[in-house]
Design a protein that fits this description.
The structure holds two protein chains of two kinds.
Chain A (H helix, E strand, L loop, with lengths): L4 H22 L7 H18 L9 H7 L1 H27 L10 H9 L5 H21 L1 H8 L3 H26 L5 H22 L8 H4 L4
Helix pairs in contact in A: 1-2, 2-4, 3-4, 4-5, 4-6, 6-8, 8-9
Chain B lengths: L2 E4 L7 H5 L5 E3 L6 E3 L10 H5 L5 E3 L13
Antiparallel strand pairs in B: 1-4, 2-3
Classes of the chains: A mainly alpha, B alpha+beta.
Chain lengths: ~220, ~70
């Protein structure tokens, strides 16, 4: 039985929105102000949706059949742009509450944070941020790049896949290293999601094994 | 102890420098801030106020209101 659109959409909402929210709530960290919690939730959900991009591509034939390729591409594009916008702003969102509190000034906090090169998590975050920017720009300008460099669409797609995989590995490491809520629950969930997504992507680029001839098996396909 | 926990520390050392009572130290292994002398905390909130990533949580039940010269 083929899964219906509603069934797949419900599964996506559960997996990419409800489950991370539940794991976020279960993280054993003290609660903070509404603004800080809202910003953290926005960041966590954006990262989950970005990991979910692996599943909203050509990787799962059932999803492709249910939603049709143009719709799937549009969904992939808009979720990507939305999530990447939030994650590009995420270093600035961390210091945003400082505008409403006494203590360190937001700009000073941002500079201290971004120039702390001794910390591996910060370095990973900076590299991931750069990769994410390249990912967004090369996706937005893909048609121009293809024309300018005379490359085939498949080559660009391979580049996009490699870039996405590199970004996922580094950003996941950054999230586990520095994330307030990414303990073994949410961190493990992110890890599983990333592994599954990368495995699905890798399957697409594996050389196809020759299929056994139908008549040799006595089958009529 | 008023400092409850430190989550998401980036190891910049701002809290170590701002603490007047030497409560917080940087762990040489992980490079992150740890509550080394919890009993010495005087609840001044300076570590929390100067942490750039807001990593320090205070116990609200033991906290005093922050006293600032500007009200």
């Amino acid at each position: 039985m083929k899964p219906t659109r509603t069934c797949l959409a419900l599964a996506a909402v559960l997996l990419f929105l409800a489950l991370p929210l539940a794991l976020y709530a279960l993280a054993p960290v003290p609660g903070r102000s509404l603004l800080k919690e809202a910003l953290s939730i926005l960041t966590v959900l954006s990262f989950t949706l970005l990991l979910g991009q692996f599943f909203l591509a050509r990787t799962i034939p059932a999803v492709q059949q249910a939603f049709k390729v143009p719709h799937l591409q549009a969904l992939h594009r808009w979720i990507g742009y939305g999530a990447i916008t939030v994650l590009l702003l995420h270093p600035f969102l961390i210091v945003l509450p400082r505008y409403f509190e006494p203590g360190v000034r937001p700009l000073d906090a941002l500079i201290t944070m971004l120039t702390n090169f001794d910390n591996l998590g910060v370095l990973l975050g900076l590299v991931s941020w750069g990769l994410m920017l390249v990912l967004a720009l090369t996706s937005h300008l893909r048609m121009r790049l293809i024309k300018r460099f005379h490359i085939r669409y498949r080559v660009w797609r391979g580049f996009h896949a490699v870039l996405a995989t590199g970004f996922t590995g580094l950003s996941l490491w950054h999230a586990i290293e520095l994330g307030r809520h990414t303990g073994w629950l949410l961190g493990g969930f992110f890890g599983l999601l990333a592994l599954a997504g990368i495995a699905l992507l890798a399957r697409l680029y594996m050389p196809e094994r020759p299929r056994p001839a139908a008549h040799a098996e006595g089958l009529h396909i | 102890m008023t400092i409850k926990s430190i989550h998401g520390c980036i190891g910049c050392g701002e809290c170590v420098q701002s603490c007047p009572c030497d409560v917080i130290r940087l762990d040489p292994g992980s490079g992150k801030a740890v509550i080394a002398y919890p009993d010495d905390c005087q609840i001044c909130h300076l570590c929390r106020l100067y942490c750039p990533v807001d990593a320090i949580e205070m116990s609200p039940e033991k906290s005093l209101p922050v006293i600032t010269p500007w009200g």
